[in-house]
Each structure stands twice: as structure tokens, then as C-alpha cells.
Amino acid sequence: MAAQETNLKFPLGKIEPNSLKYFGACTLGGIIACGPTHTSVTPLDLVKCRRQVDPKIYTSNLSAWRSIISKEGIRGIFFGWSPTFVGYSFQGAGKYGFYEYFKYLYGDRMFPETNRTLVHLGASASAEFIADVALCPFEAIKVRMQTTLPPFANTMREGWSKVVAQEGLSGLYKGLYPLWARQIPYTMTKFATFEETVSLIYRTLGKPKESFNGLQQTGVSFAGGYIAGIFCAIVSHPADVLVSKLNADRKAGESAMKAVSRIYGNIGFPGLWNGLPTRIVMLGTLTGFQWLIYDSFKVFLGLPTTGH
């Protein structure tokens, strides 16, 4: 009854699971979960990207922040926040909205007898494939802004204009393949690990999810998200390093594969793991709060939290 009252009070009215309104609500939840959270960790992301491109630029995260603040003030450590906010808001919309849709399509409509983990993997991969097309231009601008000194551009609008003027619209998508290589395994790990972790937590607690209140369920969502984020960081980190270096150091007319081969030849296998501890902290916290926000939004709408 309480859930129904919550739905009736909400401007959208009652939301039926797996309806168009439901998928729209999940899309909005993805925007709220991803845009602000990614923007909030810009100081970590800024240092991570610069250390990936040049491991000698800073001796530690703290020394990096001290150096940046001394030269540019507090605003300096949030450099690149605008393409981060816009890009990851778009990505969050596609990632969560399409995940819910594909999970329903693959699991309930097309392959109802399929193992649920396979459904989660397939749904998350499909969703991320689409979401990255929206993210890619803004990720390209963000990385160029953050990894070039002096900066390639000082604002998102300036960065967009300069890339298009120099390379055309295709310049905004030259990192799409490496982005897919980073983000699709990341998202598959994120969603499948989250779903399995949440299921394991409820089995360990010995009671069904429905027996817990909304606050307790979102607490489980945060724990499951944090654990999933740690796995995500490890799985996707080598591709993340290559994306940063590719956007910062790809030569004119050079194919993506040739650029990747050249960059790998310069940094070797150990270089693919530069900045991993920072990324584990960043993504664990980030993913935990994303699931907390996303499922809290669903509870606000009177919908069940994610997971079984």
C-alpha cells in the first residue's frame, strides 16, 4: 500500500514494471546517478589521466593536488568537469535505461530459460555499446583538456570547436573503439557482479529482499556496487590507459590499431597498469554511490530496487 501511495503522489503516476514509463524512469535515474557522481570525482580523474599519460608528472595524488591548487586554485582540480558532467549524464541515461530494457527483452521475452548471469552480461554489453556513442565526443574533449599542458582547451565549447575545426566530426569519435574496449567489459563486470553480489548478500542474510525496507535495500545496493566497482577497475584499467594515451598522443592520419601498437611499444605491459590504485578507490566509491542513488530514486518512485 505504501508503494502505491508513493506512486500516486509522483507526477508520472503509477509506473508499471517493464512499461515505457518504467524504462523512461530508469533512464532518468541513470542520468541522476552518473552525471553528478562522475563530476564529483573529477579531481581524482584529472590526476589519474595525467599520470597515465606521463607517470613522472606527479609523485603522488596529494602532491599533484597541491601543485595544481598552488598554480590554479581549487577550481584547477575540477578542470574538465563540464564535458565530464554532460558526457556521463548521456552515458548514464543509455547505460541504465537500456540495461533495464535489454534485461527484460533478453530475459523475459527472448530467452526466458537462459541463465540470469548471461542475461545480465548480454543486456549490459548491449546497453553500453549504445551509451558509449553518446559519451565518446565528450570523453575525447575531457581527456584532451586534462592531459595536455598547457590545456588543449579551457572549456567544453572551446574543445568541441577546436576538434571539429582541426579534424572534423570524426575527430570526436577517434577514440570510440578503445572506449568500447574499456567500457563494455567494465559495464558487463559492473552489472553482472552487482547482481550476483546483491543476490549473495540476501542469501547470506537468510531473508528475501522484500522483507527489508527501502533504506536497508539501498544499503545493500551500495555494498554491492562498491564491490562491483573494484572488479570493474581491474578489468577495464588497461583499456582506460590506452584511451587516455590515444586521445592525447594519436598522430594525424594514424589508424587506431597502429596508434595502439605504437603506444604499447613505448609503455609495455607494466605501463598499462599506471594509476590502478587510484582508479580502484575512484571506481569503488563511484560505483557504490551510483547504485545507491539509482536504487534510491527507484524506491522514491515506489519501484523495487535492482537485483533479486
UniProtKB/TrEMBL annotation:
Signal sequence segment: none
Q: How does it sit in the membrane?
A: Multi-pass membrane protein
Read off the InterPro entries from this record: MCP_dom_sf (IPR023395), MCP_transmembrane (IPR018108), SLC25A3/Pic2/Mir1-like (IPR044677)
Q: Which terms are listed as keywords in the entry?
A: Membrane, Mitochondrion, Mitochondrion inner membrane, Repeat, Transmembrane, Transmembrane helix, Transport
Q: What is its main location?
A: mitochondrion
The record's listing under Gene3D superfamilies reads: Mitochondrial carrier domain
Solcar repeat placement: 21-105, 115-200, 216-300
**Location in or out of the cell:** Mitochondrion inner membrane
| Protein family per UniProt | Belongs to the mitochondrial carrier (TC 2.A.29) family.
What name is this protein filed under? Answer: Mitochondrial carrier domain-containing protein
Q: Which organism is it from?
A: Aspergillus cavernicola
